[in-house]
Amino acid sequence: MNAVTKTQSAPVAQQGVMQRLMSFLGLVQDESKPPRMPWMAAFIGVALAALLFGVYRWYQHAYSFTVGLDYFEQEFQTYWMRLFYIQMTIITLIGAIGVPLLWFTRPANPEMSPRRELLVYYAILAFAAVGSIILVAILGLYVEADAAWHQVTVRDTDFTPTHIGLFYFAIPLAAVGAILGFVLLHTRVPYFTNRVSMPMALIVAAPVLIMPNLGLNEWGHTFFYAEELFAAPIHWGFVLLGWGLFAIGGLIIQILQRVRELTVLNVKGAQA
What we know:
Blueprint: H1 2-25, H2 39-67, H3 74-104, H4 114-152, H5 161-188, H6 198-223, H7 236-242, H8 248-263, H9 267-271
Helix pairs in contact: 2-4, 2-5, 3-5, 4-5, 4-8, 5-6, 6-7, 6-8
Organism: Candidatus Macondimonas diazotrophica
Pfam families: AmoC
GO molecular function, one term: monooxygenase activity
């Protein structure tokens, strides 16, 4: 009897810890009260992302000029190509496992209370507000640094320290994260099921389509664009596809429309 009790109490204890953690982050709230913006979850999540990209940027700064100038040196294979294979394997596994897992575990008829649905939208808005700060930092420390690096050092292959950090880490990670968010939103939130949010689709398409444009860019630099000019036509695709992130404005409008529907007062019903 005691063994059975202990076996049953372990999952309950784990569930209690997870419940307290989600409550601390603001992702689980008392549904008898109006939902609040989960700022704690947004700040902690973005802080962890900033730590990850900050450590990666330190690694680039420490090892780019010492062992990152020549692809054909053994040190480059050790410090950079090994990193490339590790991060691409991890990112690929996250997408290959995460997308089918979300899809095949989706509820047949997703239901959500209005307060819970509001909390989901509040979480999206909170992460968008806080995440916009780190996005600007990433654009400066990774995108602009990539062009500046290639203006100073002549690329010998498609694999350079800044490319490995930008096109084989930051952008694929953003693409996988956007795809997972797209699937999660369209399979769990009733307002988005049985339809496709075009703004969300554009947000997902932006980092995904940048990857084939990378192939065009490297082909162009290999054969007829030796210079690394910011305004070179071979770079126009990056700008155009990067503008896809502006579709977040459309997603916010969709969310605010739904928030209005969930929070409007039924005056006639109340008077009746």
